[in-house]
Specification:
This protein is mainly alpha-helical. The protein has one domain. About 85% of the residues lie in helices and about 0% in strands. It contains four helices and no strands. Helix 1 runs antiparallel to helix 3 and helix 3 runs antiparallel to helix 4. The chain starts with a helix and ends with a helix.
Amino acid sequence: MSSITQVQQDMLARMGQFAELAGGDAVRPASLPMAEAGGFGESFESALRAVDAEQHRSSQAMEAVDSGRSDDLVGAMVQSQKASVSFSALMQVRNKLASAFDDVMRMPL
């Protein structure tokens, strides 16, 4: 399984957990659901590390083609596009989280 697919499946699983939480009771202890699953910060860190690994694989493949060690130009370009898409998806998630945080901070009490 490619790392982008793994990141996407992890994000979908987290979205499912958040949907479950949104449909439940209004007040729950913050430590219960996320602490057992490893936490949101840990999940985001693993997604960040997966995107970083994808970027490194892409740069290694491009370097191999540039130096003549590999003739797989198409494979290097596909790897580069996978890294680009995974980075773009990560930035979109980060931007959504930042805007959600801003919205929560602007809520009247």
